[in-house]
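Annotated sample (chain length 173).
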Amino acid sequence: MNPFELNRIECRVRRFPDSVSTDYIIASSRKKETIDTDELKKYVFEDINPGFFYSIKPGDIVVGGTNFGCGSAMEIAVTVLLAAGIRIVIAESFARTFLRNALNNGLIALTTGTGALKEGDKIRLSGMSTGTVKVELADGDALVCDTIPPFMLDILERGGLVPYLKANKRFVD
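Output written by the structure step:
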């Protein structure tokens, strides 16, 4: 799914609490075995939601509360989410390094109040291509996410920082 090619995106909420650390996204013990994200994706969120990977469906998004991605600055926490098929995370706030790793790797991190979003809710996202994303709830209410600045939108549309730099001839192999 390329969210930037669609006007409206149908999603299913996969809900997580406040302060989900990078070690909850992928446990340190698993990284001792391998750093291959295709292998590690099976263990995403295993400490707080065992078997989560096997329940992921196309269009699932992760929704958290405050301070999502806190803890260590592990880039693999972002890349394992992408490997598992998660392209979008919505939270009330993100840890600074998680947010930077998300942008660098093309994971869309949206910020808004998430209290109304419950596990399994069907929602629609619109406005992704403009950077002004609206979360449309089943009951007709809507949440507006913080605007994605144009330069960040360009990076995300390319799939991350390295593809962006290559496309703009600002990166040497």
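Annotation: Helices lie at 22-25, 28-31, 37-40, 52-55, 76-83, 96-105, 150-158, 161-167.
Annotation: Residues 96-105 form the longest helix (10 residues).
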